[in-house]
């Protein structure tokens, strides 16, 4: 063999060897992901973890979860870790003020603009969503989904049996509620404190409309205004028809009451569709039905789960590989059909989504969009924590004026509005 042939062969061998190195070989070691997607809420996240570990066989994911709907427990643990200098590699955080008004203002997140540029994400996520993830200084997390907050859930067959229709307004609900009660059925199931706030936002958007809702968060409508007091009063009427043991129930248990025929309706975000379709294996449209929560037809109250890169995380490169995967069309289309949410991207493959999710996607494109309070879009964490106390005061006293006054004080203290 001539010398030049040997060189050629060696070069060929090198090319072949490189071709055999899996794409993810550079990523190895641990990746700690922090979220509240535990137990019943876990399958969609677990599918993403499986994809990550298959792409990067030398990496090991530490799936740190703190159970509890809406992250009420997880966020407290995260705060201790972040302030104590022990951040996870990446964590679940809602797009909007929960991200920007909590962690970005405190200088705890890395700017991810480079990733958006590298991956061409500027054009695949809707402009409104990008706005919720950004400040003038950067883009601060990667969204995995769009959830809808204002959904009314029911079992069609049960409503037929009880002779009631899906209420289009809260007035209609209040008219049919006594009929249901007389049959021994709870008209509206409810769970722990945060689910009351979730219901409150749906009632408030119905009572004041999406424009005034926006004005409230822009500081242009007072928390003590007649519109907000009316919303509290309507909320007070509605919760008269909820179960007495609400404070001790998780959101899943409140959903179960509907599925098992103890309650007629429940208002919850569409992770309930994920729970009913993925965990309980119910068929959308048969095992469960849905409508916009009363008085909100044509409005999509949105929220988005995202993951960010905390400053000083131990495994930065692995976290970047995770974030890169999350933003991809493929990962979003694996995660969302299981989760009960739609892809945050505009180019998802809708054939992978069930009937409920197809209808949510159509509404997302055509409805008026409003931001969720209970899930961090319009308010920072300080406001959300203190609003839980306002809610407790109202649940104890039923006093709309007192709740409105307390909420105004909380909005000022937390910097949500300035007066
Ligand atoms: C929301 C979150 C959803 C779901 C829900 C119930 O805050 O965005 O993904 O987990 O809480 O826990």
Anisotropy-based shape:
globular
CATH superfamily of the largest domain: Periplasmic binding protein-like II
Q: How much β-strand is present in the residues? A: 5-15%
Counted up, domains total 2
What structural category do the secondary elements indicate? alpha/beta
Contiguous low-pLDDT stretches (5 residues minimum) are: 14-23
Mean pLDDT: 95
Number of strands: 14
Number of helical elements: 17
CATH topology of the largest domain: D-Maltodextrin-Binding Protein, domain 2
Top CATH class of the largest domain: Alpha Beta
**Attached small molecules:** beta-D-galactopyranose
Termini Cα gap: 86 Å
Radius of gyration: 23 Å
Assembly state of the chains shown: single chain
Across the major sheet, the strand order is: 2-1-3-13-6
The major β-sheet equals: 5 strands, mixed
List descriptors.
single chain; 419 residues; alpha/beta; D-Maltodextrin-Binding Protein, domain 2; 2 domains; 5-stranded mixed sheet; 4-stranded mixed sheet; 14 strands; binds beta-D-galactopyranose
What does this structure look like?
It is a single chain. It is built from 17 helices and 14 strands. By secondary structure, it is an alpha/beta fold. The longest helix is centred in the middle third of the chain and has 25 residues, at 193-217. The radius of gyration is 23 Å and the shape is globular. The chain starts with a helix and ends in a 6-residue tail after the last helix.
